[in-house]
């Protein structure tokens, strides 16, 4: 390419080249440069100098220049001063102005200044940073200029409409301006938008000066690219230029005056030339490519981004070159060296590598080289997206899958190839077929990366689209690959590698419900009628067995804590998912994960949360409401279940975190197909809370020290109470609340109908694999807890109650009723005794009455009041604290005995109140 | 007691015992103050008007209020008339109460009724009237009109058969404190004020003109209305429960208040310590500097460095204590009466058997 730009320095030509690909930027508002570049053609005609006019005008231009300088360094105060001077000077020049008409540059500065001020005014941030003087000056100046400009409105608008025309006259002024200012540019800090604009306007002037020197032999591609690209690099040169020329500024001005015409002519000429050239552009670049290809591949990897894509495949090697291992490897290294460099077309690179594979295959160079190149292809595929946060394109990923598959094929086919990341480049053996081939590279990392990319793709696909389903189908392929790699590594890998790949496998297994195993469990063991097809289906390993095997290996062999933790959690999750509650619970308890999970990294914590939730749901299915409630309490009570499970971000905290954090959090999200249904989760939690809380509430109705078991449940109840009008329940929560109310009255049938009905089935219960079992369990639970609630609430009404009646009322069989009541009596919840011969419960009526309860509470409160009071007293006494504390303890002990709930003792203590 | 001679209440024959309850409490305390008013004499009309006002407008724990009109005669405050404040609703927020009162008094003067403002009345719910609001308005009344009293009417007790009407004034001590507007612990300590000395009760005499008395006797003979025996009702649980509940709430508040106070105390002492330490450090450093011949560090304003914590206003706790006191009195009174009734009932039962 240097052939074309013989004089341009390397960097320059490159930047101008890359400028081609940039779309011409919209030139809104920066009139600064346009007049220079577009309007020079008509320059000569107006270059007549009149002395009187000149004098005044020079004064004006000087002022304007200072104003521009001030504008650049955002010194509004200065601007204001100068603007006032300018107004005066303009008044002096009135006679000339009357003759000549208002000079264009004057209008120009007015318009520019106004725009500049408006811009500053809009820039709230900048305004805040401005010091007081400046801010004050800004507002005054803004008002002044508005007022002033009103007189020149017509001219200004006409100038704004076509700045080129009006700029012609002061083109050189502009140049001078920029020159004068460029030195001040250096101490300019914080490039605001305006200063950018200014800078741009200045840049072309530098450019044009450069033209002076280079004009003769330099071809520029297009103006736009010049503007956008060059000013960055050129401004430095112009800066230095101006620095030396600053002193002899006046001389320079005259020099310019002389030279200008020629320069500008040339610029115009050049422009025309450019236009013509632009048309040739595509052709040229093509030619360029061809030429490069001929270049014996010396620089062939320098494919430029914007250039029209090379359609013909580049030839790798010169014809007739004997292709040997050494050459191929050299080539490969060449290609790889371009990797990561700026301006390297990654797509093309991949293509090249693939071509290289073909060539290698054609030339039978052996599998070793192919494996090596394949490794690199996959790596390049991963490199394709430079940003780690974004996800791979699914197509690229597919390609990657294929590639890995091929690689695995080769590796399986050639057991004599050794692959490892610790094999050094030097010790690689690609060619010597006698010895085992050794290739550097790690299949495991590739697979892990592939898996991660898969997760990313899933994260970034809309879970409700068909696309997601399509992507999800690839999951099977991922699993297959992981399995293959696993098999491969089992033979060759180290234990550490095996652990890692096992974990991958586990991560792809743990969340899937094993329907086959489930079916098998349900089916009668003899099952003689099994068709052959069934048998074939059943041949696959039970996921439970698989999990067991993989996890046990990891438990035994893993040395990094993280993999083991993950494996345990997955194992528990899997157990819980398949309703093996006791195994899951024991594993959880044995691992002691609950104690130290807060030290783990967020993804593991998310996994832990998921496991706990699954554990809770499992407990619920088994009818262990208390365990279910405990397991779910942490997740549900925070109200951030969604966030804790990594199933979505909360909007609430959006303001609290910045963009970076949000990105990180987004990356942690669990893909949709792993999600746990949040409504199911909440329903399970609320129902188990209801089963616990309602009887508890009934038992401790008037106990001051009653603790809420579940805050969230109470919250829901309160929400339900606040409703002014109670319609039939709609949402899951309303159903639970309505059911709770029914249960409070001991009305189990209503409760049952609220919990289990069409709506709730659809929303929640049918989501369980064994929905019917869960439902029967639930009904029974409701009956039992309703019975308990009934007894708590209404025991004071009864003298005695027959168990048969109870069993009829709650449709429970007699032994169950008996056992429930016995339990209540034993745990001193119900003051009653059973009369065996008549099968009745005889109430003892020892529960304190309402007043007694109140009095008890009062006593308790007074106790704490006294205690608090004594603390104040302690404080006053200071040193005697010890004595009083002893006393207080004694006092509290007494209190404790008398305050304790239950039985007979209390009654005596308060009747005398 | 003086009140015995005059009938009041709803004009029924049970008036004797009713007034007894109303004025019985006034003994002793009223004489303690050296205040201008030693006795309150209320017209039967005023009592009836207050009762009527509550029955018409107040329900539940809503409170009705009104203005008392009358005259001061020697050390006796005679209340001869009253009128209610209109009930506030939210839509007439621009309603001017003062304006209304002035209007009302002017109108009353036109018809030649006593129009001098001598206080105000308020109904109460289970005796919960010792509040900040009452304190503030009574203070402003007493500040403006030295003799003014507040009449507290307890409708619930009245419904149980004994008219309950009490007149209260702020003690001079409390007036002093309120004037200072300083409720810090120190100020209250200095004023030596406790919850017992916040309000003073003024004995009440209900007086009717002789003509009315004659009419009453007349009516009593003729009336065929059966006697109502609310007084003998044995049911106690509801009232007692409510009272306990309220008492408990106040105790809770008291507890919180004490905790707050305790924290304050702790904070002050902690700060005191810090201050002390700081001073010591400063001193040491200055000594060192002196030995090195350097000028000592300049004195700094201690109060700026250590801002004393905001002392909690103790007035609230005083009020709460006062309120608790009233509740206890009420409950005591109530239970005493009830026990009496129970014994009576028992005796009756035994007699019948």
What does this entry show, briefly?
The complex is a heterodimer of chains A (913) and B (353). With 913 residues, chain A is an all-alpha fold. Chain B has helices at 15-24, 29-32, 44-57, 97-110, 132-144, 155-159, 172-180, 185-191, 210-222, 237-292, 302-305, 315-352, and strands at residues 39-43, 65-73, 76-84, 117-123, 149-153, 165-170, 199-202, 204-207.
Describe this structure in words.
- The complex is a heterodimer of chains A (913) and B (353).
- In chain A, helix 29 (625-637) crosses helix 32 (678-699), helix 32 packs parallel to helix 34 (732-744) and helix 35 (748-755) runs antiparallel to helix 37 (771-794).
- In chain A, the strands form two sheets. Chain A has a three-stranded antiparallel β-sheet with strand order 3-5-4.
- Helix content of chain A is 68%, strand content 2%.
- Chain A is mostly helical.
- Chain A contains 42 helices and five strands.
- The model of chain A is unreliable at 1-46, 166-261, 279-314, 525-539 and 879-913 (pLDDT under 50).
- Chain A starts with 9 loop residues before the first helix and ends with a helix.
- Among the domains of chain A are: 52-160, no CATH class; 325-493, no CATH class; 717-843, Orthogonal Bundle (Arc Repressor Mutant, subunit A).
- In chain A, 32% of the residues are buried.
- Chain B is an alpha/beta fold and 353 residues long.
- Chain B has two domains: 39-87 and 97-223, Cytidine Deaminase, domain 2 (3-Layer(aba) Sandwich); 253-291 and 307-352.
- Chain B has helices at residues 15-24, 29-32, 44-57, 97-110, 132-144, 155-159, 172-180, 185-191, 210-222, 237-292, 302-305, 315-352, and strands at residues 39-43, 65-73, 76-84, 117-123, 149-153, 165-170, 199-202, 204-207.
- In chain B, strands 7-6-5-4-2-3-1-8 form an eight-stranded mixed β-sheet.
- In chain B, helix 10 (237-292) packs antiparallel against helix 12 (315-352).
- The model of chain B is unreliable at 1-33 (pLDDT under 50).
- Chain A binds chain B through residues 849-851, 854-855, 857-858, 861-862, 864-865, 868-869, 871-872, 875-876, 913, and chain B through 237, 240-241, 244-245, 247-248, 251-252, 254-255, 258-259, 261-262, 265-266, 269, 335.
